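dumping this here before i forget
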Amino acid sequence: MPDLIEIRQVTKVFGRGATEVHAFGPVDLAIEAGQFVSLLGPSGCGKSTLVLMLAGLLERSAGTIRIGGKEVTGPQTDIGIMFQDNTLVPWRTVRGNVELQLEMRGMPPKPHADRVMSLLRAVHLEDFAERHPHELSGGMQQRAAFCQAMVHDPRIMLLDEPLGKLDAMTRERIRSDLQQLWMQQRPTVLFVTHSIEEAVQLSTQVAVITPRPGRIDRLIPIDLPFPRDLAVKNSPTFVGHVREIQEIFRGFGVI
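structure:
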């Protein structure tokens, strides 16, 4: 299967002269279509910087990024992207917020009504379709935002710590919802997280990033069956992957 995302010798430097900060790279990474790859590393290592460069929202200082064989030279409109803070607008209902993603792309919502409701059902929000964001919990808002990011059927999703501000129980529920959506749709996902367990639970591969300037120390395949339920999480293989990554970060001196 050909690589959908190709990152070659990508580097990001902020500032010049005395204020110059080498934030990221050089990094090489190739991601095949349909993979779920987590970027796992300490704060300030450049994980979010890479997401912004992939989305075409931040210029790289050196190197090349290609998506589907085409070099990224500006904002990418055919991907799904999520950050810690969701992009729901307060004056629209949950359904209306999901439909907004279609409207922004010139796609009339009515022919896609079934897909909108199918996504809401997948994250258990079908009974809240006509509610407004302020009527939802933080976790429900993030689940609505997942639907918003996926409704136009993107081939690539960039998720920059979308679970970072949630409590542990809500985070676990949304991990399960996200896993289910990925299994159904199979987009290519690049997922930024600080959680070792989260990365192992969700990913087909984990890219372990060094402290700044962020580089890929190693790419670890996670060969575990999906869905990764409690039985899988308690398996020796799962625990072994978590311990392996903990030892890497212990070597970096960050845990």
